Each structure stands twice: as structure tokens, then as C-alpha cells.
């Protein structure tokens, strides 16, 4: 089982990252399928997406000890059927990540690529640009993007604008560490979040639990 990173918080929240090296057949043989899951997999035609789907369900099965049968709300938020646990899922090139918790949670991961920096004007605000300027911009952009995706998944606020209504406070990227983020949504009180992150040569990972 190629779990490359795993951590937990007080044995109540569990995060695991899987590096996908198996074939689809090998992954499927490890999974306890329900009829709903078989039907969900049939709807996925892309071979890479099928591998990501299988790996994420195996992680859910591993972390929860429950059948990894997941449905989604109208907003796309995953729900673990017949369980009160919160589940959040992320995929990137060759990897899957799952976080399960009794609390609101979020996780996001991305592989290193110039594409994130090319889109940075859409999600990096002037406050963040000020502390990024002249530094390792690709790393900052990737971590900030993952952090804001994590905030979005955690808070579940529809229609939030990543650039204007989310702020990631200044930080200096290390191989792993913590971040602070805020959501400033319309007239609602400011919501503050503590985030954790991990940076490797193969992926960026940010989570909240």
C-alpha cells in the first residue's frame, strides 16, 4: 500500500496521501464495492480519473473502517454514507489525499507546475502580493492556491471569491509548517482558520482539521 504521508490529530482526525502506482485492476481488488460505487465508477471514462477515484476510496476505507460509499451534495461536497464523519478529498497528478474528521475539514493538493502562477491574478490579492514580491513566487502561489481551496472546502460557502474574500497571512515556506487564513464574506463575521502544509518535490499539500 503506497501511503507516502499520514498524520492524525488527537486520534480524531486522520489524513493520508496515496501515491498511485497500481493498475486499475490492482486497486479494485483491494476495494469493498457497493452497487452505488460500481455505478459511480462506470460514469468515469478517463483512465487517470478512475485511478484517482479508486485510490481515494481505498483511503476512505482505510481511515474510516467503513464501506467507502460517497455521495455529493448539490455544491459538490462529499458525504460518507451512513456516517457522521466529515470527509474531504483531493487528487493531483499521480496522487490522492483524503482527510476524515468529526469536525469540519478540508484538504487540497497540487503537483508543481507553472500553470498555477499563470492563474495567480485570479486568486492572489494585493495583500498577499506584497509579501510574495521578489521571493519564490511559484511556491507561494501553489501554497496559497491550495490554502484557499482548503478554506473553501472547509467553510462550504457558495459564491465566495478567492481573491477578494480570502486572505492568507504572511508566511515563509518550509518543507512543512502552519498557515493562518481568513474568510471575509460579505457582512458575516471574519472567520479565522489554522492550516497545515507540506511541500515535496512531487506535490503541495494543505489541510485544515
From TrEMBL:
An annotated Gene Ontology molecular function: holo-[acyl-carrier-protein] synthase activity
Pfam families: ACPS (PF01648)
Entry annotated with the keyword Transport: no
The species this protein was found in: Natronoflexus pectinivorans
Domain spans labelled 4'-phosphopantetheinyl transferase: 105-157
Key words of the record: Transferase
Record's protein name: 4'-phosphopantetheinyl transferase superfamily protein
Signal peptide: none
InterPro entries per UniProt: 4-PPantetheinyl_Trfase_dom, 4-PPantetheinyl_Trfase_dom_sf
Lineage: Bacteria, Pseudomonadati, Bacteroidota, Bacteroidia, Marinilabiliales
Amino acid at each position: 500500500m503506497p501511503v507516502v504521508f499520514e498524520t492524525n490529530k488527537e486520534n480524531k482526525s486522520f489524513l493520508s496521501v496515496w501515491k498511485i502506482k497500481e493498475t486499475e485492476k490492482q486497486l479494485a481488488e483491494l476495494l469493498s464495492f457497493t452497487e452505488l460505487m460500481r455505478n459511480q465508477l462506470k460514469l468515469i471514462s478517463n483512465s487517470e480519473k478512475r485511478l484517482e477515484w479508486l485510490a481515494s476510496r481505498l483511503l476512505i476505507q482505510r481511515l474510516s473502517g467503513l464501506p467507502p460509499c460517497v455521495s455529493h451534495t448539490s455544491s459538490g461536497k462529499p458525504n460518507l454514507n451512513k456516517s457522521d464523519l466529515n470527509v474531504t478529498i483531493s487528487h493531483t497528478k499521480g496522487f490522492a489525499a483524503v482527510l476524515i474528521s468529526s469536525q469540519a475539514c478540508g484538504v487540497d493538493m497540487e503537483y508543481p507546475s507553472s500553470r498555477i502562477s499563470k492563474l495567480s491574478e485570479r486568486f492572489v490579492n494585493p495583500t498577499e502580493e506584497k509579501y510574495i514580491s521578489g521571493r519564490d513566487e511559484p511556491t507561494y502561489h501553489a501554497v496559497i492556491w491550495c490554502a484557499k481551496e482548503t478554506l473553501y472546502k472547509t467553510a462550504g460557502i457558495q459564491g465566495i471569491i478567492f481573491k477578494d474574500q480570502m486572505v492568507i497571512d504572511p508566511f515563509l515556506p518550509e518543507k512543512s509548517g502552519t498557515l493562518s487564513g481568513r474568510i471575509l464574506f460579505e457582512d458575516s463575521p471574519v472567520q479565522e482558520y489554522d492550516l497545515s502544509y507540506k511541500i515535496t518535490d512531487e506535490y503541495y499539500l494543505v489541510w485544515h482539521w
